[in-house]
Amino acid sequence: MNIIAGGQYGLAFEDNNIVKEQRKFALKSLHEIGFGSAALEDSVYHYAQEIVTRWTKMGNEHVDVTENIIRAIGNVIWHVTFGINLEFDNPIILEFRRLQLALIPLLASPFMMFVELFPILRKIDFLIGSPTKRLMEVSSESHVMLKEAINTTQQSFNPDNEPSCYIEAFLAEQKNREEAGKPIGDAPRFHYKTTLHFSGNFHFEQMLNTLRMCFLQLVNNPEAQRQLQKEIDDVVGDRV
User: How far apart are CA 161 and CA 171, in angstroms?
Assistant: First the structure.
C-alpha cells in the first residue's frame, strides 16, 4: 500500500477501523444514490440493448463477447462512481482495465511477496529490473485517469443537491465534516487520497468473468437457453 497508494488508502488490502468505516460509508452512499434502483436498471438496460444490437449486426461472424461486456459494465460503474456518462466506445474503460490487469502480476510477483517480509529489498530492486518502479508507474497512470474523473465531478458538484454518485457523496461528507469542525488533514478517513484510491477499487473483472461463463454455459446448453427465454417471456412478456 505504501508503494501504490502512499499509505493506508482505499479498501482493497487493509482491514482496520478506518477501512471498516469507509466500507460502511460506501454501502450507505451507494444505497442513497440509487444502487439497485429503477434509474440504474434503466442504465443497465440501455447498455444491454447496445450490446445485443452490436452482436446482431455481426450476423454469422464469430463474436468475442468480452469487449462489449467490458464497455457496458465499465460505463455503469464509471457513472455510479463519478456521475459521468461516457459514450459506449469511449477508450477510457478499456485503458483503465488494461492498467488494472497490469497491476495484478506485479503485485503477485515473488519479489513483491518478499518485499512484504523484507522492505529493505526495495533498495536493491534495480538489480532485477526495478519491479517496484514499474508498479509505481502503472499505479500512477491509473491515478491520472481517476484524478481527471474526480476533478470533472468536483467542478459540477453542488453541495445543496442530493449526491448522484459516490464521489459527490464523499465530497458532501467532507464538507459536512469541515463545517462540523472535524479535521480531515492527512488522516486517511475522508482525505482526497481515500477518494482517489477507493474509486479505483470498483473492479469489474469478476462481473465480466461471471457473464462470460454464463454465455458459455448457454451456448453449450440450448435447453437452458430455451428455459431462460421462456422465463423472460412469462415474466416480462412484450414489455420493453
Answer: 12
